[in-house]
UniProtKB/TrEMBL annotation:
One of its GO terms (cellular component) is vacuolar proton-transporting V-type ATPase, V1 domain. V-ATPase is a heteromultimeric enzyme made up of two complexes: the ATP-hydrolytic V1 complex and the proton translocation V0 complex. It holds the Pfam family V-ATPase_G. It comes from Hermanssonia centrifuga. Subunit of the V1 complex of vacuolar(H+)-ATPase (V-ATPase), a multisubunit enzyme composed of a peripheral complex (V1) that hydrolyzes ATP and a membrane integral complex (V0) that translocates protons. V-ATPase is responsible for acidifying and maintaining the pH of intracellular compartments and in some cell types, is targeted to the plasma membrane, where it is responsible for acidifying the extracellular environment. GO terms for molecular function: ATP hydrolysis activity; proton-transporting ATPase activity, rotational mechanism. InterPro entries: V-ATPase_G. This is V-type proton ATPase subunit G. Residues 12-54 form a coiled coil. Belongs to the V-ATPase G subunit family. Keywords: Coiled coil, Hydrogen ion transport, Ion transport, Transport.
Amino acid sequence: MASQQSQSIQTLLEAEKEAAKVVQQARQYRVQKLKEARTQATKEIEEYRKFKEEEFKAFEASHVGTTHSAQVAVDKDTEVKRAEISKAYGSHKDTVVKKLLDRVVLVNPELHRNLKKAE
């Protein structure tokens, strides 16, 4: 009976060692799978980033022409308005200078309307 108990204990110890090995292997497998998942996720993120960058560059390239043509149109319009302003300046310059000089030089002395005359 002692021999049978000793053999049972020995079997239990071996089963416990085997279970510990299985648990250790499961832990290692889990760690390995987590590392693989991280690596795969990083790779997918990098591929997605490259895809979006290419998509953005294509979008930017397709809209650069639109921006350039809009800039050219604005520049032309600005030049036309600038020419109009210069023309108006040239045609009214003499009149404005004459009016300013008349106001400064030709002074008509009179009492201010708020000043009461002394009686």
